[in-house]
Amino acid sequence: MILKQHLIFILYSLCASVFKVAGTKNKAKGSQGQFPITQNVTVVEGGTANMTCRVDYNDNTSLQWSNPAQQTLFFGDKKALRDNRIELVRASWQELTISINDVTLSDEGQYTCSLFTMPVKTTKAFLTVLGVPERPEITGFTKPAMEGDMITLTCTTSGSKPAANIRWFRNDKEVQGTKEVNATGKSFTVRSSLQFQVDRRDDGVAYTCSVEHVSLSNPYMTTEVLEVHYAPHLEITHSLIIPQEGQYFKLECVSIGNPIPEPVLWSKDGGELPDIERMIVEGRELTITMLNKTDNGTYRCEASNHLGTSSAEYILFVYAKDLPGPTTDPNALGQHGPDHALIGGVVAVVVFITLCLIIVLGRYLARHKGTYLTHEAKGAEDAPDADTAIINAEGNHVHAEEKKEYFI
């Protein structure tokens, strides 16, 4: 009986030992068969990057983070590198998380997480740092620009990584520029240029440079308003289409130019206004309080700026109050009235054609004034032979002088 109990105890001990050895082997196999788990991280320059390393199972084996230069940052919860920007977030047998504050472009690279088993298991994680572009600056503006000048506007932004994108807008419409990218260390400087010839339509136009980048939630923008100086242009507007005697009449000199052309000078028929009591000038307006026939004539306004002088004319014809006026504005043909040179040319052509007809008719009458032979002088055609025809012809010529007739 004692021998039987002793055999049972020995068998139990052997089974326990077998199970213990098997459990130890499985435990070692689980620890040595896995690799650390990491993820790549992208952060904006100046931000904070969190680097996390995990293992599903760890038999009290330490984790370690190293930088791209293979310098140990943390070994477990122990800090190894003196850098105040690097801090421990969480440390356990299954996780090691650190943070890098105020990240710079130089922090970018491949970081290594190591699990110190036999052999050591490592996994890489890449830290990408986005360089934030500087706010754009527009150069090349000449204030003011002169009409006809060729100017080049350049928008520049630096510090972007990857290279930023620049777009141009003329007011709200996009226009295409010429792009240039230059590397400056780990970041990029981007320029975009617009070249165009300035005209008066560009005066007051807003040119906007927009910088777009993956690190920006909204584009950076800067705007410049172009000022263009150009020579004046004048036009005259009038208050009445058919001015009649006794009416109130106003002319306005509308000027376009930069700087604004002034002062505006009014004149009539090349001289001063004849009746300053009825003809009142207020700035750009000329008002005639009571129209009469003596107001007929050509009115002229003139103004200038430092780029030139311009003028405009209006021909005033005052109609009698009791008579119906014309159906059209006498100035409809233009501010300068009818073309007298054209009328004179037409009259000259008519006179020339008439003289030519008279000359041709006179020559025709002169050619048909003279003598001719009547049928009585004929006879040669009916002669039986040549001798008879000669005799008849001579006879007819003898009497031809007697058959002359005249006409005028």
Please give the structural blueprint:
Layout: H1 2-32, E1 41-44, E2 49-54, E3 63-66, E4 72-75, E5 78-79, E6 86-91, E7 95-100, E8 109-115, E9 121-130, E10 137-139, E11 145-146, E12 150-160, E13 165-170, E14 173-175, E15 178-184, E16 187-197, E17 206-212, E18 220-225, E19 228-238, E20 249-258, E21 265-268, E22 279-282, E23 285-288, E24 297-305, E25 308-316, H2 340-367, H3 386-398
- Secondary structural class: alpha+beta
**How many β-strand runs?**
25
Radius of gyration: 55 Å
Overall mean confidence score, pLDDT: 82
Which series of helices and strands comes N to C? HEEEEEEEEEEEEEEEEEEEEEEEEEHH
State which percent range the strand residues make up. 35-45%
What percent of residues adopt helix (DSSP H or I)?
10-25%
Indicate the low-confidence ranges by residue numbers: 1-32, 332-338, 371-378, 396-408
Distance between the ends: 188 Å
**Tally of helical runs:** 3
Strand order of the largest sheet: 1-9-8-3-4-5
Question: How would you sum up this structure, described in words?
Answer:
Helices cover 18% and strands 38% of the residues. The protein is elongated, with a radius of gyration of 55 Å. It has helices at residues 2-32, 340-367, 386-398, and strands spanning 41-44, 49-54, 63-66, 72-75, 78-79, 86-91, 95-100, 109-115, 121-130, 137-139, 145-146, 150-160, 165-170, 173-175, 178-184, 187-197, 206-212, 220-225, 228-238, 249-258, 265-268, 279-282, 285-288, 297-305, 308-316. By secondary structure, the protein is an alpha+beta fold. It has a six-stranded mixed sheet, with no helix packed on it. A five-stranded mixed sheet has the order 11-19-20-23-22, with no helix packed on it. It is built from three helices and 25 strands. 16% of the residues are buried.
